[in-house]
Design goal:
By secondary structure, the chain is mainly α. It is built from 7 helices and 2 strands.
């Protein structure tokens, strides 16, 4: 409820605050686990390992471009991440037989082992997050998160470094109110 001066008299709750907090808590939990176990990698690198494993297990080859597209990460960042993962012994990159200009990304035995451990850890973290929720509530939480992701992806705001998407949204919002 707003007062006459426009000041907010009740504490307003913002969804983004909680989404950000949950994201950080998950990231810190995963990174803490990795550090505790002596792994020299981040949760982001583990997510990439999981993607590689999933694709490889499904019979698909993974290339750097696939990681760039799936994670929305710049080419230079992916190259750096992969170099660190290769240095750590978690992946190997081998030249593709059909195109010598590109390299396939494969997990090593150490990468497979870590990915298995991380799968268990992520399962544990998700169990903690959904503790005290019914199956229906868990399904609804997942549905709402997926809907929120879909909404922001279709908004035109992502990948817009010049702010044009925000201006377009602002114009639309203004025209709908008039």
């Amino acid at each position: 409820m707003n007062g006459s001066d426009g000041a907010n008299t009740e504490k307003e709750e913002h969804i983004g605050k909680y989404v950000n907090r949950l994201s950080k808590d998950i990231r810190y939990s995963i990174n803490g686990y990795l550090l505790e176990k002596g792994y020299s990698m981040t949760g982001e690198q583990c997510r990439i390992l999981g993607f590689i494993r999933y694709c490889n297990d499904s019979g698909s080859c993974v290339f750097q471009k696939d990681i760039e597209n799936s994670f929305g990460i710049k080419r230079s960042s992916v190259a750096s991440i992969l170099a660190n993962m290769e240095k750590g012994g978690y992946i190997i990159r081998e030249v593709d037989k059909s195109d010598a200009r590109i390299k396939k990304v494969l997990l090593t035995d150490e990468g497979q082992k870590l990915q298995t451990e991380m799968g268990l850890t992520i399962g544990m973290v998700e169990e903690i997050i959904t503790r005290n929720m019914s199956d229906k509530e868990k399904s609804e939480l997942l549905r709402l998160i997926q809907l929120a992701v879909s909404n922001i992806e279709s908004s035109g705001l992502l990948g817009d470094h010049c702010g044009k998407g925000r201006e377009k949204f602002k114009e639309k919002e203004t025209s709908e109110k008039c």
